[in-house]
Amino acid sequence: MAEQVQLQIRQQETNVEARERQVDQAKAQLETANLNLSYTEVRAPFDGVVTKRNVQPGTLVQAGTALFSLVSPNVWVVANFKESQLERMKPGDKVTVSVDAWPDMELEGHVDSIQQGSGSRFSAFPAENATGNFVKIVQRVPVKIVIDKGLDPNKPLPLGLSVAPKVTVE
């Protein structure tokens, strides 16, 4: 009788060890499933508004596929000023901006930064003067203007609208 009880104890210990291995396998499968689930989420690098969605829910995509465009809720304008207009302009200068699409809207902002190069230096095909024609061409330099106030949530400002900035310099 004692031998039978010992045999049953060993069998149950073996069953417990087998169940512990099954639990370990199930934990590993759960970790793999959680990892795979994390691959199904799209996390944006910043807050914004989704525009131009290129895929629909359920679409299988590869790494690097553009799913949509994300537009920052922060509003700014890049104005191309003539190089002769930059002499006294500096970051922090106050700016008023009128929007062609909304004539009654006047925005207030400030100069955030002045690009350290003209637009022609950063274009895909910069103009090269190989003909010997040395006519001076006034360059335009991009200036980033951050809008601080004056936005109306009922009047959207889509990308690419024309504006007229006026910088107050000291």
From TrEMBL:
<keyword id="KW-0175">Coiled coil</keyword>
<feature type="domain" description="p-hydroxybenzoic acid efflux pump subunit AaeA-like beta-barrel">
    <location>
        <begin position="76"/>
        <end position="161"/>
    </location>
</feature>
<dbReference type="GO" id="GO:0030313">
    <property type="term" value="C:cell envelope"/>
</dbReference>
<dbReference type="InterPro" id="IPR058634">
    <property type="entry name" value="AaeA-lik-b-barrel"/>
</dbReference>
<protein>
    <submittedName>
        <fullName>Secretion protein HlyD family protein</fullName>
    </submittedName>
</protein>
<dbReference type="InterPro" id="IPR050739">
    <property type="entry name" value="MFP"/>
</dbReference>
<dbReference type="GO" id="GO:0055085">
    <property type="term" value="P:transmembrane transport"/>
</dbReference>
<dbReference type="Pfam" id="PF25963">
    <property type="entry name" value="Beta-barrel_AAEA"/>
</dbReference>
<feature type="coiled-coil region">
    <location>
        <begin position="2"/>
        <end position="36"/>
    </location>
</feature>
